[in-house]
Amino acid sequence: MSKVLHVITDTNIGGAGRYLLNLLSAWQEDRYSVAVACPAGGELEKRLKSLGIKVFTLKGGEKSFRFSHVVELLKIIAREKVDLIHTHASLSGRVAGKLMGCKVVMTRHWMGKKSEMGFLRRLLNRIVYSLLTDRVIAVSRAVKVSLIEIGVPARIIKTVYNGIQIPNFSGDGSELRRELNIPENVPLIGIIARLVPEKGHEFAIKALPSILEKFPDARLVLVGDGPYRGYLEDLCGRIGVKDKVIFLGYRTDVERIAVDFDVILMPSVSEGLALALLEVMALGKPVVASAVGGLPEVIKNGHNGILVPPGDIKVLAEKVIELLNSSELRNRLGQKAKDTILSKFTARVMAESTREVYDEVMNFKRSVS
Predict the structure, then answer these.
(1) Are 317 and 211 in contact (CB under 8 A)?
(2) I need a labelling partner for 6 at 20 to 30 A (CA). Which of 75, 261, 278, 354 fits?
């Protein structure tokens, strides 16, 4: 059996950490046994160990490249006789893997920024990726295209869609309302995302006055935290919706929270393929999302959700109002959303596709399709 070591620089559970937890929770150790190397002392380490995953801790905290991490990883790879390194934004892992003669796979979770790169930077990317990486897993076709645009050779990129563990939630769907003391007849609109500019929270806030004209009691609930929180709170005050927007901060009980939302928004301006989108769709929730990045690869407009142009406040408000006006439409889109996730975006499907990537780099298969 070949040994795989996942290397991740996170201590707490962000997008890459959730991806890794989903992948390993569905992993079948037939040809590949797995272990993880990550910084010590965080929530991610605890969760991995709770799954029974062998964890090697790295000193020095979060950083993509740290010389001390390379040294630690070289020792782990030699001692454990690792065959394949799978990295998640860890340059240290890729360098150590290649120095030890391992095959190296990395997962790219986000979109590249072609507009910020000149010819020399793209050439450097091509050289570095070719030297340090045997395969790059893109979590959507949009991410694959963005990788090619920033210089990554197309021949080493494989698209493997994000997958999730199907929620097993047994709540009655009113716990959040009880927590916030909000009656059942008050519409709840939710966003589950880190508070950063690319997630587009400001467009939802700016659309809220139009929504309130039709539904004066509606609330917009923001689940997540981040450096943009101060700006967003100021924005709420400036446009007079401060008492209608609730900042919940970072929460670990996302399933319980999402069940209570009538409509969920994802107004991003850039998006690879958000795990939060898959999770709320799996709960049967209607989603209004921007037509950017990998989101249109999951949402088919009018079939299992609604797509809107990114940054279009008017259309965003119109579509939310349309959904709030029709429980039948919400239920229909929500059911189709759930069906989509169950058929194509489970952790099991992701694990099987990832295993095929491992087979390719380990020469169990000859070609890249």
Answers:
(1) yes
(2) 278
